[in-house]
Design goal:
single chain; two-stranded antiparallel ribbon; K_chnl_dom; transport; transmembrane helix
Length: 281
């Protein structure tokens, strides 16, 4: 049951469309809350996400190791044969079970303890397969998360550059279609980030020290751009502004549902989002 629980959590965290397993969420949220207790939070911010990922992977590994140890332990005396180099007087059933589970899940297979029962001879290779699956899942998880983080940071940098250029002041007066194209592209990128956050909920817990790469610090500027563009006389620009504002509102709704459970307007949610990541607007 322990092994199946760990495998279920791995599946829901990495491959299930809804995002995150219950155990991994508890581990990540615990580390997130713990990091907020650190006084000099700015020095700890960028490490919270990677440490949380490592903690979840270690938790999965420990559960699988413990579960298989409990499978071997009751049968250690009579269900296994031992190599001649092992000293019988120094043997301990639990330690031997833990050792066998560790070398099997790590796919080392030293061969000094060998199962003799038929079903145990099938169980040991199965544990090795699960150990290989754990390694594959960990690599797959990292390869999935960091592209999503890169897209989020790229959107933040783009908003930061627009803010430096004071685009909100200039955008209502532009006569070309470039303004509506700009807002449409921002809406598309924000929709992609929203999908990433749904699929990989753990990306929420990655903080950025630099406000230039922090979407929580800069997403309110997308609202400012949209509201400025809605005062323009051109209908295509007004439509693009409405779509962008709706995209931000949908993103804020997701934040309220999964991470910031409280009622409030889009502006209030975005303010809490920024504060939760160590930024203020």
């Amino acid at each position: 049951m322990i092994v199946l629980f760990a495998l279920r959590d791995m599946f829901h965290t990495i491959w299930h469309p809804s995002g995150q397993g219950s155990l991994s969420r508890l581990v990540i949220e615990g580390i997130w809350r713990g990091s907020r207790l650190v006084r000099r939070r700015s020095n700890q911010t960028s490490m919270v996400g990677p440490v949380a990922l490592l903690a979840v992977i270690l938790t999965w590994g420990l559960l699988i190791l413990a579960g298989w140890t409990l499978v071997y332990w009751p049968h250690m005396a009579e269900g296994f044969s031992f190599g001649s180099a092992l000293n019988p007087s120094q043997r301990a059933d639990f330690v031997d079970s833990l050792y066998l589970s560790l070398v099997t899940v790590a796919t080392l297979g030293y061969g000094d303890i060998v199962p003799t029962y038929g079903w145990l001879r099938l169980a040991a290779p199965l544990e090795a397969l699960i150990g290989f699956a754990l390694l594959t899942a960990a690599v797959s998880w990292v390869l999935q998360i960091y592209p999503a983080l890169a897209r989020r940071r790229a959107l933040a940098v783009r908003l930061a550059l627009l803010k430096r250029a004071d685009a909100a002041r200039a955008i209502p007066t532009l006569d070309s279609s470039a303004a509506s194209t700009l807002l449409d592209s921002l809406a598309d990128e924000l929709i992609q980030v929203r999908v990433d956050l749904t699929q990989y909920a753990e990306t929420y817990y990655f903080r950025e020290v630099d406000a230039t790469t922090s979407l929580p610090a800069l997403v309110p500027y997308a609202v400012e751009l949209a509201r400025a563009a809605r005062t323009a006389p051109r209908q295509d620009l007004q439509l693009a502004a409405t779509v962008l504002e709706e995209a931000v509102g949908d993103y804020a709704h997701l934040l309220r549902q999964q991470f910031l459970p409280s009622e409030g307007t889009t502006d209030e949610t975005l303010q809490r989002y920024a504060r939760d990541h160590g930024h203020s607007n």
